[in-house]
């Protein structure tokens, strides 16, 4: 049976899915490889990692290589609370602004472009750089941060306008926004189908235990990242970790919007892996 290499993102938003994953149940069968999202996207496309939470945009870009695991995503219906546009000006004044973009994202960068260009008709300038809040705001009219960088910056915001991209997407579309999907390479499914099923079952076990033991996860993230228990409870309960038909519709609309702006060559139909005992959760 082949080895499956799993990309493991150490962002706080992944904890409710992965915190209770029992890797010891797969001796010699899996390898956990720590990655930031942008690098995981690259490694998955290259084939040096077989599965993991990749950005939704990366799935759209290389969908012919992948399948999406049902029941697993990082999504929001409205506020996501960890993907923020910080701005020196109100949103309506960003028509030709310079926006500094984190180099750790793909989905959120293109979501911001859809919001500013498609929904508002703006033509901003963009510069991609390392996620350094102070430096980004020195060099631009605004900046996009994701994940723990965004959370910390929002806690310590010195007075900038803050726009939650999940909330803006919902305002303009009425759809759920899917930021990451748990994706597996098709060649890995062909190589080790039974192992893939066992890993998937373990992920679903971990997610369900994360739901029922959320207070334990919250204590761990408070210790690692700071913040209050109430803050993290609000954050986690505002996210969706499922992938249902509703998620699929929202994601495919995101791809249509991206294609309209030339960010993708065309619309994408999401292929959901059919090896699960249950399709959606």
In short:
By secondary structure, this protein is α/β, with parallel strands linked by helices.
CATH homologous superfamily grouping of the largest domain: Periplasmic binding protein-like II
Structural Rg: 18 Å
The helix-and-strand class reads alpha/beta
Biggest sheet strand order reads: 2-1-3-10-4
Count of distinct structural domains:
2
Figure out the total of helices. Answer: 12
Q: How many angstroms does the end-to-end distance come to?
A: 28 Å
- Bulk shape: globular
The whole-number mean of residue pLDDT values reads: 94
Question: What report would you give on this structure?
Answer:
The chain is an alpha/beta fold and 281 residues long. Helices cover 43% and strands 21% of the residues. The protein is built from 12 helices and 10 strands. Strands 2-1-3-10-4 form a 5-stranded mixed beta sheet. Strands 7-6-8-5-9 form a 5-stranded mixed beta sheet, with helices on both faces. The longest helix is centred in the C-terminal third of the chain and has 20 residues, at 193-212.
Architecture blueprint of SSEs:
Layout: E1 4-8, H1 15-18, E2 30-34, H2 37-46, E3 51-55, H3 56-61, E4 66-76, E5 83-87, E6 98-102, H4 107-118, E7 125-129, H5 133-139, E8 142-146, H6 147-155, E9 161-164, H7 165-173, E10 177-185, H8 186-191, H9 193-212, H10 214-225, H11 229-237, H12 245-260
Parallel strand pairs: 1-2, 1-3, 6-7, 6-8
Antiparallel strand pairs: 3-10, 4-10, 5-8, 5-9
Helix pairs in contact: 4-7, 4-12, 9-10, 10-11
């Amino acid at each position: 049976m082949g080895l499956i290499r799993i990309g493991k993102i150490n962002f706080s938003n992944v904890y409710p899915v992965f915190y209770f994953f029992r890797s010891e149940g797969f001796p010699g069968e899996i390898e956990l490889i720590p990655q930031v999202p942008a690098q995981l996207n690259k490694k998955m496309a290259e084939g040096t990692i077989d599965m993991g939470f990749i950005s939704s945009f990366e799935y759209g870009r290389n969908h012919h290589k992948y399948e999406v695991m049902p029941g697993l995503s990082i999504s929001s219906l409205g506020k996501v609370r960890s993907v923020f546009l910080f701005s020196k000006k109100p949103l309506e004044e960003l028509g030709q602004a310079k926006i500094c973009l984190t180099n750790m994202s793909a989905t959120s960068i293109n979501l911001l472009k859809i919001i500013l260009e498609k929904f508002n008709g703006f033509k901003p300038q963009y510069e991609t750089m390392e996620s350094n809040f102070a430096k980004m705001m020195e060099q631009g009219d605004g900046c996009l941060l994701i994940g723990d960088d965004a959370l910390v910056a929002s806690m310590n915001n010195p007075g900038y306008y803050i726009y939650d991209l999940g909330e803006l997407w919902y305002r303009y579309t009425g759809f759920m926004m899917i930021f990451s999907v748990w994706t597996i390479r098709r060649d890995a499914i062909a190589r080790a189908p039974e192992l893939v099923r066992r890993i998937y079952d373990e992920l679903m076990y971990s997610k369900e235990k994360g739901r029922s033991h959320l207070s334990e996860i919250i204590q761990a993230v408070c210790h690692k990242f700071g913040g209050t228990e109430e803050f993290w409870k609000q954050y986690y309960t505002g996210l969706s970790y499922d992938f249902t038909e509703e998620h699929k519709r929202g994601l495919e609309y995101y791809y249509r919007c991206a294609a309209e702006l030339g960010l993708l060559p065309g619309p994408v139909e999401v292929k959901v892996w059919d090896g699960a005992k249950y399709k959606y959760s």
